[in-house]
Amino acid sequence: MARPTSTFRCTECGWSTAKWAGRCAECQQWGTVVDVAEQTGIVRSLQAVAPSATRAARPINEVETEDAAHRPSGIGEFDRVLGGGIVAGAAILLSGEPGVGKSTLLLEVAARVAAAGRRVLYVSAEESTAQVRLRAGRTGALHDELYLAAETDLATILGQVDQVAPELLIVDSVQTVSSSLSDGLPGQPSQVREVASTLIRVAKERHLPVLLVGHVTKDGSIAGPRLLEHLVDVVCQFEGDRQTALRFVRALKNRFGPTDEVGCFEMTGDGIAEVPDPSGLFLSRSRNAVSGTCVTVALEGRRALPVEVQALVVATKAPQPRRVVNGVDPSRVAMIIAVLERRAGLRQLGEHDVYVSTVGGVRLAEPGADLAIAVAIASAMRDRAVPHELAAFGEISLAGEVRPVTSARQRGGEARRLGYTTILDVEAGSVRAAVERAMMASASSRERELDAAF
After folding, report:
1. Does residue 191 have a pLDDT over 60?
2. How far apart are CA 173 and CA 168, in angstroms?
């Protein structure tokens, strides 16, 4: 028998070394290298275990799917992101920055599910039951089928599950719960892995859906081991700016539905409210047309949202003009400015500072907003306002062509539903023709305003 040796291995990526290190040389994580007792030169064999009758393999056509059906949570925007509702036995991870409203959203979900006649157990590992009760009273999330518990020990939480027998379990948060079967403090990778794997195993065995709250790090990623995101079935990101009341829920991973949907919410004094029709949230309220503005129709999942793009062009004597953007990709704005200078005849943009921003704090990451950005910059450069009834969407190539975008018919239908009668899209042919058409529409709108004044 070979002499046992001590090996240190990273719990994140599996990198091993003969000496202990505070930081993994492979994944660059701190505090993940632990001592693993290994015996070299020994080949271990695993005995096969016969499966039980209930767990034996069956033909796929004989597998029942009733247990995997979506059950609505009572909040339409949250169900939209999940793919229709909560699936029995699913493990859902909701992450977000501190103070964005994760606990408020899940408390509202718990109240809606309890109001539907299903028992819910809300376990808070960060707040006392009195604090949760106070917030529930303020938001109106009170129901007899909603049970509260303030526990940080995993074994006690499992005992609460046996006693209450809920149909939905919410744990806030997974980084603050610890297990006696694992060493380390709560929040360390070993503890998070043990707590998450145990809760997920209980969810699968009892067909009990589990909602887990996850903290995020400074760079926005979920705290703890990456294994946590692989273990759960659904990973949702709760986003929002503290300066505004608007909140978004996006699905980064979903085994039961699409990952391109987005749910819109608004934080109010009475809690969180869903916004089923956010069409007017990203538009300005100015009655008079102002130069440097253009409306585009962005696509978030299967939802078309009108978004207003604003641009400001200011002459400068600096050798390097400023390019400041907010809500759009800086590299795409720089490319659009270059195309406007070379293909649309706006050759003086190199002598001006250009500022581009979106209304409402929304971020446009798709290329379908290129044409609206180009029209807004051209409108600001020429100081000619684009009429309110004009909307533009299309991708701009380096050759100055307007390329088609996905779901163009849906975008156009949403724009016409909101009253936009002039649509600039791929039919414009080139960015020069689109800019000239927008300027002609601006002149026609100005003439109508003058006729109405007299």
Report:
1. yes
2. 15
